[in-house]
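Quick note —
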Amino acid sequence: MYGKAVAPEYQGALTTLSVNSSLVDVLATGTEQLRAAERAGQPGEVARCGLAVAEAHRRLGQVRDADRAWKASYRAARDAGDTAAMAWALWSGGTLARQRGAFALARRLLGLAAELGERGDDIVVRGYSLAGLAETGRIQGDYEAVGRLHEQLLAEARRRGEARHTVWALEGIAQMHRNSGAYDRAYALFEEAAQIAARADDRRGHAWALRGLADVVSVRDGDTERALALLSEAETTCRAMNLTSALAYNHKMRGNVHYRAGRYTEARNLYEQALAEFRAMSEPRGEALARLGLAKSLARLGRDRTETAAELADLARTLERIGLRHAREMVARAEEELGLDTRRALEAVR
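Predicted structure written out below.
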């Protein structure tokens, strides 16, 4: 049985904030309480309020502000001798690093966060940090290495009745099944995640689950209208909570759905929109994926084949540099779909 979802990253004077609080409100309240704690000379409270500020900036796509905030939170936690608060700050920094495509840094910070969480006897930040490590490996396509960790974290979350963490784990496992072609299993897991999130009032988790369901409905069933309806429902939540990154990924997925349906003009427009959103928040992984969709759409709309081949070759190099190990497979699938040979173009851009 799962209780109402909570946001453990909202600490200290901010524990009254809901998991569904608008990020703009979180940022405003967090900044106000942070300044009050600084005036009162309370480094522990500065660290905990600073964590919420860092997370609000990160989720709003304000990368530089997020980077400054988590580092300031860590310094305050260190001054206060609060090991658990140090772990939370490192978790925020590691999550930001993954969002920026700095996977090696993400693994280092999240690993340190997990160690400090265990040392500080905070099982929640330890679990969140291990989850971050698992997600980093999953994004890079290292399913064999992180699959067991995902399953372990899911079992722990179920045992403790933590709805939000259970939803996260279900979605991660579902995504791996979807990418491996096990669509029925992926659908079942996304559906369970959506149901748990809805009952626990975890609107963010619910929005991500709906995006996953829309993807499977589109690729497995070819049901374009249902997929778009699911994405529209998720977008309403993203806008209400100011989930900038989730909204950009929603738009990219909407582009995918239109592309699969042969609606290439609509797909192009959505990929262009998502690309601008990802660039605004300095999210290289999302930017590269939107570029890939845009390149395919433009090719379908008559773009010169040589230009398309060069674009795909450059994308292959970009994705490999970011550290996405399955990047060449993605480009190879696009190459095969479009009947192109990017090998010569790839050599030209290297």
